[in-house]
Amino acid sequence: MAFKMIYDTRNRTNLDKLADHTKVAAYKWYNYCINNQIQLLIYETIRTVAQQKQNVANGKSQTMKSYHLVGQALDWVLVDSKGNTLWNAYKTANGMKVINYAKSIGFVSGHDWGWDSPHLQYEHKGYGTDIFGKIKVDKGELTMSQYNELSAKIKELEEQLKNKANIKTDTVVDETHMESWDWAIAQGIIKGDGKSMNPTGALSRQQMATMLKRYHDKYIVK
Q: Which top-level group of life is the source organism from (predicted)?
């Protein structure tokens, strides 16, 4: 079964609120987590001034110059297979993978401060230097048109493969092979009328596999 991030919708909704350069880096980091099947929740990104004032008053934040205010920070936590948050898991193997990869692509981790492990901030060119709505972000998703185009191509390739053993030529079937050829056509192992196929040409492995499967399905599988 393909890996599915439990909080994928919520995570992407929060990531989409970030400033442009931060968002690009954050999606690269998020896709790394998906590719490594690391379940996590991104529970906060951009923050209002009112929220920040409340956090300072409650002791949750230490400054009004928060990178959350300018869309250059996110907070995350690992979760288990049922979606339960794992607040003590930042020092685990997966926790450190997430942190170290984020740092490798330019994030600063609050884990290194010793008191804010959930926090990742992307300083870019400094506080408040990122922009909004100017850069197209690769979120690791297909657009509907891309999906439809890919689906059509897959169907085309499947059809080509299905008919691989039925490639026609203008070569006439030799009389010494005619009885066997007619039998194979009648049994559905190959297709043609004996005049438009090449029984003497070299078979590709794909053609041979198709013919053997037809024989297997008709005579071996009951």
A: Bacteria
Same domain, 126 and 159: no
- Please state, in angstroms and as integers, the Cα–Cα distance from residue 19 to each residue in 30, 54, 106, 222, following that order: 15, 23, 15, 62
Which residues span the domain enclosing 16?
Answer: 8-131
CB atoms near residue 15 (< 10 Å): 19
Same domain, 156 and 93: no
Rounded distance between C-alpha atoms, residue 20 and residue 127, angstroms: 14
Taken as a whole, the chain contains a residue count of 222
pLDDT at 216: 72
Residue 40 pairs in a beta bridge with 78
Indicate the residue type of 112. D
Cα separations (Å) of 3 from 33, 142, 201?
11, 17, 45
- Distance in angstroms (rounded) separating the CA atoms of residues 29 and 121: 12
Give the pLDDT score at 200.
47
pLDDT in tens, 57-91: 888 777 888 899 999 999 999 999 999 999 999 99
107/208 same-domain check: no
Distance from the first to the final alpha carbon of the chain: 30
